[in-house]
Amino acid sequence: MDAFTRFTNQTQGRDRLFRATQYTCMLLRYLLEPKAGKEKVVMKLKKLESSVSTGRKWFRLGNVVHAVQATQQSIHATDLVPRVCLTLANMNRVIYFICDTILWVRSVGLASGINKEKWRMWAARHYYYSLLLSLARDLYEISLQMEKIAHNRAKREKSLSQDPLGYNVADEETEWLQSFLFLLFRSLKKHPPLFLDTVKNFCDILNPLDQLGIYKSNPGLIGLGGLVSSIAGIIIVAYPQMRLKMH
Question: Does the record carry Isomerase as a key word (predicted)?
């Protein structure tokens, strides 16, 4: 109970709970819409989804400052690839949150001359860039872990006077694929923060892909992706040791 209280006292924690509720409603609405006699339930889910989405905008108002701070921190990363990817990703997050704030100002009626569609597309575009760069960082970290595991495996098998399978995999495509999947599985299993960050970013990118028309999806898939991403985010907020560290 104490852990839950600490979690809900954090703005990020409340936002993740609201986000999980929002995408759960979207997923359930998609599943129930084709069924007869579920019109009232679907309408209630739609209203709840809209209310939760509006509530989340209040939690995101201060995220511009957090994104600026994250940008300043990422500049000091020692490794070049994470430094470039994270800095550019955080800069795009700053622009995304600025666009999101402008859309919030319009939604509450503080300014009526704002082109909602234009700012919505700008927000989606910079959100997409941010996630794409974050995924590039994740893939880089995965490649490092796979290389390390392959190297250790080759050394171990060499000491046992066996043919190493780490770098010198067989020419056959199936054996290459098996070796690749083995290294990928071991890398993600050994580093849960990297696994969570990759899953979260991959699931999140489905929404801007749909909004920008790059890959059209349906509310069910977006809702499922958003729910999985929200659960991963809840774990990261509740257990800070599960956050992918910058080095």
Answer: no
Q: Phi/psi of residue 126, each to 5°?
A: -75, -30
| Max Cα-Cα span within the chain | 74
Q: Looking at residue 230, what is its pLDDT?
A: 95
**Please, is 137 exposed, middle or buried when counting C-beta atoms within 10 Å of its C-beta (0-12, 13-18, 19+)?**
buried
- The one-letter amino acid code at 182 reads F
Distance CA 138, CA 201 (A): 9
CA atoms of 218 and 41, how far apart (whole Å): 19
* Tokens of residue 145, six digits: 């872990």
Question: From CA 75, how far away is CA 81, in angstroms rounded?
Answer: 11
Residue 210, pLDDT above cutoff 90: yes
Q: What is the pLDDT of residues 142-177, one digit of tens each?
A: 999 999 988 887 777 777 655 544 444 445 567 778
Q: Name the average pLDDT for the chain.
A: 87
